[in-house]
Amino acid sequence: MIIRLADCPPQPWKNGLGSTREIAIHPDGAGNDDFLWRVSIAEVDSAAPFSSFPGIDRQIALLDGNGFTMTLDDDRMHALTTPFEPFAFAGEAKVAVTLVDGPTRDFNLMVRRTQARGEVQVWQGPDTRMPDPSTVLVYCARGVIDTTEGPLHAGDAWRPAPASPLRLHHNALALVIRIEPNAS
What we know:
It comes from Rhodanobacter panaciterrae. The chain has strands spanning 2-3, 10-12, 19-26, 37-44, 56-64, 68-72, 76-80, 87-90, 95-99, 104-112, 116-124, 127-129, 135-142, 144-147, 150-153, 157-158, 166-168, 173-181. The chain is mainly β. It folds into two domains: 7-112, Jelly Rolls (Sandwich); 116-181, Jelly Rolls, CATH 2.60.120.
């Protein structure tokens, strides 16, 4: 299934201090308290703190803009200034943000840590790939990616069916989400 960013309306952050576009959530129709995993694109246009998500492992990657510096739990700093480079942190961490120079957009993966592990992989073109069974979403961050259901352009995402290859054109870049359940 192809998901177009234009079909994902902005909604307020959990803390109401910013906005995000939910790309996909599992299970379908879940909310903040019962999702297994969630992928979204956040608009960061002020130094507002991130929402708290206890029990959630998060990964974030800069998509557009000059980025920001994250201060985690008042003592650890991370500069999110390199596009498409995932950074992992705990959802319950207290996160303050200082913008580098203007607004940014970032890619977010959230996974309920007691139930699963998530990973954001970066694939670059030109290349042809076969997503493995743990791949739940392919996000086109740059360029064009051909799928069995049609092309993806920057901002589009795809929920691949099993054994569905994709082709990344020259200069294409995909953020690929893999989710694996925790061992019982």
